[in-house]
Amino acid sequence: MDYSYCNFMFTQGQRQRMRAALNSPIASRNNLITDANHLATGIDLNSLCRVDFKPDRAITCMLDTVSFKDKSMATPDSWLWNFGDGETSTLQNPTHIYYAAGAYPVTLLATKGADTISSAVQTIYVSDINPVAAYVQPFDSLNNFSDAALLQETDNALLEFEISNANSGYNSARAAWIHTADTTDAYSGRSTLTSSAIQLGGQVNPTFSLQYACAQRELNSDDQLEVLISNDCGHTWLSMGKRKGPNLRTNSAAYNNPWWTPADSTEWRAYSFTIPAAYCVSNFMFRIEATAFRLNSLYIDNINVNADDYTAIVEPKLPVMSVHPNPAHDQIHVVTEEPGILTIRDALGRVVIETATQTGVLNIGCAEWSAGIYVLCFKANNTQVMEKVFVY
Question: Which of 47, 251, 276, 355 has a 20 to 30 A CA-CA distance from 84?
Fold first, then answer.
């Protein structure tokens, strides 16, 4: 047990034991959360006191399914979900597919008797697939993390990643930075940076690497840096290892004065690994997770996901494809500048057409297609480009 912060007070095993105890029939403990017990203890089940919900994840890919679960206090009689893309649902626990990348504000309006209450907004971030089989991110020219296709989440606003001040990166001007130095309080919590989807399908032995620098306020603190990867667009995550306590610290002394800045490249360390073959997929994602107890500062720079070992930014040559008209009704004209393979999928991911193409114009009849969004993927020379077209 750790008393420093609520999120870390109990281990995962302790949480499971407590949940099992509360759901056990021994001593009728499983009756504690029943409607009958609520009525017996004076809770008014006819009044809707709070409306809340939980998505199965906040980050997903376009054409993927997100599940939403009603978590309201006292079961409502009716539900009206707004998914932020113009679509709604009246189910208690609906699922929803997003057809385009973006950030979607989701709300639940619930009714019980005379009470109608709206939930707080929760945002679902939908990622497009990066057509380049590489991700290279120094932070020198960025104003925010969305410019780097990174989504930040935190359970403590005092621990949010920021773009650092000048001359604090790894042989560069700026880096991603958490700074928590304070003379009176110990800020504790967890912050993450999660990538959008990256195209690694067909790659052999791609690598992940980053540089980090860290100083602690107390040398016995279990501050931690962990990198996780996903091969199913964020449904599940695999830890690729943790740097913790003395293995995370790159400055040997405790540092209490705000804020520590690495003096030079000798105070930086590399974190790298080869991405397993099972994770070389078209919707690969990575997550950088920082957990702080008595942290002073943590810097992260030069994030790389690539198929070859290189240290400079490389711009792969992408195939060229143009699609018109868009929206389309009777025909789609696809123009390519080199031979390749064109695949068209509907909104459910089903292949509508897959054909070899030559240089020039390919005319595709779409008059018999159902109205909706279709995704065109053109592959050539081991790279690909994607574009969405709306058929009406």
Answer: 47
